[in-house]
Amino acid sequence: MPKANTTPLISFTNRGLYCSAGDFYIDPWRPVDKAVITHAHSDHAKNGNKQYLCHHFTKPLLEARLGNNHYQSIGWNEVVRINGVSISLHPAGHMIGSSQIRVSHQDEVWVVSGDYKTENDGISGAFEPIRCNTFITESTFGLPIYNWLPQHDMYTQIQQWVQNNKAKKTTSILFAYSLGKAQRLLQALAMFNEPIYLHGAIWNMQMALAATGIAFPQVERITPETLREKLKGAIVIAPPGAEGTSWMKKMEPYSTAVCSGWMQVRGNARRRNTDMGFALSDHADWKGLLAAITSTGAEKVFVTHGFQSALSRYLNEQGIWSAEVKTAYGNGEEENENANSATDAINTTITTQQ
C-alpha cells in the first residue's frame, strides 16, 4: 500500500516559507527562483529573486526599492496556478498593497498573513478573514497591553497636537515609517488643507505610490533649498532615522512626535526623548490578532515574529493548536523600531480573554 504524503503544504526552511508542491517561496529572505510577496516592506521583500508575484499596488513599490526584475502582479481574489497549486491574494490591511497569501492544493488550504491589522484604515484595504486549515500569523504586538484606540480617536489626538503647535508657530515633526504609517498620517492631516513637508526618504516612496492612483494631500519635499520660513509652523513627516539629526535644525522651533505602536507602553516617549508619542500602529493589537485567528477557523496556527511565545502559549490554552516559528521578519520596520522598549510589556500576564 503506498505511503501517504505527510509533507506539509508549506514548510519553514532556511530560505523562507516554501511550498514544495508549487516550488515557490513566500517572502523569502534569501534569493530563490519564484517568490510570492505579501507586501513591500524590506523585511518581507528582498532583492535577488528571479521572479516575483505580488499585488498590483505592490509592484511599483518593489520597482522603486528593488529595481528592475521580473514582476507579475495580480488583484485581490484573483487565482494563479503554479504546478497545480492555487494561489490568491487577499487584503491584509497592513499597508497599501499588503496581502495575505492563500495557498490551496488537494483540499488543503494554508493562509500566510504576512503583517496585518484588522481595523480598516481607509487606504490599505480592509482585512479579509480567510477560512483555512492552517494559518500563519505575525505577533508583533501579541500581548494584552497592546490595545489600540480607534483610528478616528487617534487621528483626533494627532490633529489637536498639530493645531496646538500651529498656535505657537512651532513646526510639527512626526516620525513614522516611510511606507504605510506616513501615508496614514497624510490621510489624518489632510484636514489642514496645506502642503505637508516630507523627508526625502518618505518623498521617494510617496512618488512610487502615486503610480497606484490613490489620492493624497499635497506634499513637498524638504531640500537644502527649502526656506526656513516655509517650515515655520508647518507639518513635517520624517522617518525614525532622521530623529535627532542635524537635518532637523532648519525646522526650529519644533515639537516632535513618534508614531508607533510601541508608544502604548508608558515611558517610551520619554525614553525616546520626544515631546509626544502616538500609539498608531499598522499591526493588529492583541484583540485584533485573536479575532483574526479565530475567524479563519484554522485547526493549526503557526506564530511568527513578535511575542510569538506568549501568543502561541495563549492559543494552546484556548484549545487552538499552535507552535512558534522563528523567521527573518521584523528586521526593517516597526517590529524592530524600538525592540528594547518592550521590556515592561513582556512582564504582562497573559490573562485577557477573547
UniProtKB/TrEMBL annotation:
Its EC number is 3.1.-.-. Keywords: Exonuclease, Hydrolase, Ligase, Nuclease. InterPro entries: MBL, RibonucZ/Hydroxyglut_hydro, Xnuc_lig_assoc. It comes from the Bacteria. Gene3D superfamilies: Ribonuclease Z/Hydroxyacylglutathione hydrolase-like. GO terms for molecular function: exonuclease activity; ligase activity; RNA endonuclease activity. PANTHER family: BLL1145 PROTEIN (PTHR11203:SF49), CLEAVAGE AND POLYADENYLATION SPECIFICITY FACTOR FAMILY MEMBER (PTHR11203). This is Ligase-associated DNA damage response exonuclease.
